[in-house]
Amino acid sequence: MSYELIQVRTEGGKVGVVTLNRPKQLNALNNELMDELGAALKAFDADPTIGCMVITGSEKAFAAGADIGAMATYSFSDVYKGDYITRNWELIRQVRKPVIAAVSGFALGGGCELAMMCDFIIAADNARFGQPEIKLGIIPGAGGTQRLPRAVGKAKAMDLALTGRMMDATEAERAGLVSRVVALDKLMDETLAAALMICEFSQVAVMAAKESVNRAFEGGLADGIMFERRMFHALFATEDQKEGMDAFVNKRKAVFKNQ
Ligand code: HXC
Predict the structure, then answer these.
(1) What is the mean pLDDT of the chain?
(2) Dist. CA 108 → ligand 1 center (Å)
């Protein structure tokens, strides 16, 4: 499939990389781009050679939000009947392999929400995060009011959502929104190294880890612990568990078959 608003490539034959590519609009996220992003991620997810995905943007902008020009004339019935956001943005949450956001520049509004839909965020030192929707007379609509407080706590989430201010990469790391901050010129090297490391592990265990961590945000503690315990038990049925533990006991490198 060919894409117009994203670029798609693989790294090391194992990592699927999607680069958002509307540079003149600071990667503003319109429906066409989100359709392409969903299709690319689903294709990588279905490809057995791919173990991890990366979403990135440009140096200036990961994404400056949903496309305001496109949204400006929408009516309630347009967005409700058209299932705006749910129809294509939510596809990202159906991806079962890990997705890393490599963020440089602006990650605002829907751009911040897209980054938060990924499994973790690696930020360049020039990254700036915010939920400025309040300035447009709306509120975050792709999970920002739910994922941001889970990541940074109520106080900072309220501050960002109600004032519309941006936070820099240092504040975002301190608050727990991003997992690491790296120099801008090292962003892709660091992100690809993390992605390739993930690809070395048992894909079954990696997917179970992702699903289990996500449970922490989707239910109560007791249910989450029970889900994790059952997943943990289930992994003892895999060949990769036998291989991983035998390799450790015999002081050799594990060779996983993703079985
Ligand atoms: C459409 C956008 C855009 C956006 C920037 N552009 N953000 N177009 N939608 N979200 C366009 C500008 O109109 C401009 O086009 C070009 O990109 C460059 O932007 P400038 O403003 O000239 O750049 P700069 O002065 O560097 O300022 C950067 C910026 C600013 C601070 C990021 O562009 C900005 O405030 N953008 C809007 C951020 C925002 O409000 N995001 C939330 C959107 S609502 P031209 O043609 O003039 O060169 C949202 C809803 C989420 O995301 C809910 C559902 C997902």
Answers:
(1) 96
(2) 9
What element of type H or E holds 152?
A: helix 144-152
Could you tell me the two tokens for 157? Answer: 């989430």
Q: How remote is the CA of residue 96 from the centroid of ligand 1, in Å?
A: 31
> Which tokens sit at 141?
């609509």
Q: Tokens 């790296």 label which residue?
A: 182
pLDDT value, residue 1? 75
> Rounded to the nearest 10 degrees, how much is the dihedral formed by the CA atoms of 127, 133, 134, 137?
160
Sheet holding 166-168, edge to edge: 61-63, 106-108, 128-130, 166-168
Determine whether 66 is an active site residue.
yes
The structure's pTM equals 0.96
Longest dimension (CA), the chain: 65
Confidence of residue 169 (pLDDT cuts 50, 70, 90): very high
Residues in contact with 159: Cβ distance below 8 Å, sequence separation at least 6, in sequence order? 165
- Do 21 and 8 touch, CB atoms closer than 8 A? no
Whether 133 is catalytic: yes
Q: Which residues contact 207 (CB under 8 A, 6 or more apart)?
A: 96, 97
**Please, which pLDDT band fits residue 49 given cuts at 50, 70 and 90?**
very high
Query: What's 54-115 look like in SS3?
Result: EEECCCCEEECCECHHHHCCCCHHHHHHCCCCCCCHHHHHHCCCCEEEEECCEEECHHHHHH
* Nearest ligand 1 atom to alpha carbon 61: 32
Q: Residues near ligand 1 with C-beta < 6 Å?
A: 25-26, 28, 64-69, 85, 106, 108-110, 113, 132-133, 136, 140-142
Q: Does the pLDDT of residue 187 top 90, yes or no?
A: yes
Question: Per-residue pLDDT averaged across 56-60, rounded?
Answer: 98
**46 is known as an active-site residue:** no
